[in-house]
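User: Can you recover a sequence for this backbone? Please restate the input before giving your answer.

Assistant: Of course. Working from this structure:
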């Protein structure tokens, strides 16, 4: 079994990329209300702050801030994935291994996590999140993607509605 090393910092800032198993699916945007409800339910049990987030059809990116007394983001992701999966009809094809383990074929088992330690790193990941729909060719303007905290940043006066970010200056993370 692989030994994945995770960095656990109570009250830390984290960037995540979480992918569907089948990257040709659009379950996340097709079932956006279920995803939002799953996150809301988990946040009630295990609080965290969503600093930035973008939901694309087959994956999502977000920056979270955990409470000062907690570093347990794995339990939060496990529950979000579980609640979302339970809310979907069982139509996916399952591998023998997933069937044996009674797993759904919705999510990739692992996710990308990065502990943010500097203000520059934090801002770079926020920008990456907000420009991601443009990067993937889903829209021609950042403001046109509905499933992004970009709109909250505009409402709060942090970013102008015509913001685009500097695509070449954004951090490189695996999609």
């Amino acid at each position: 079994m692989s030994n994945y090393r995770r960095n656990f910092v109570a009250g830390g800032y984290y960037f995540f990329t979480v992918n569907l198993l089948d990257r040709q699916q659009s379950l996340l945007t097709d079932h956006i209300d279920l995803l939002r409800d799953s996150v809301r339910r988990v946040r009630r049990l295990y609080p965290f702050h969503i600093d930035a987030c973008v939901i694309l059809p087959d994956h999502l990116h977000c920056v979270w801030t955990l409470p000062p007394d907690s570093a347990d983001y794995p339990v939060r992701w496990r529950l979000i994935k579980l609640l979302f999966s339970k809310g979907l009809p069982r139509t996916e094809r399952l591998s023998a291994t997933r069937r044996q383990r009674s797993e759904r074929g919705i999510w990739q088992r692992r996710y990308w996590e990065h502990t943010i330690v500097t203000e520059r790193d934090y801002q770079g990941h926020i920008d990456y999140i907000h420009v991601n729909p443009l990067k993937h060719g889903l829209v021609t303007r950042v403001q046109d993607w509905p499933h992004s905290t970009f709109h909250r940043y505009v409402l709060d006066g942090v970013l102008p509605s015509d913001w685009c970010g500097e695509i070449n200056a954004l951090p490189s993370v695996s999609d």
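That completes the design. The beta strands are 13-19, 49-55, 59-65, 112-116.
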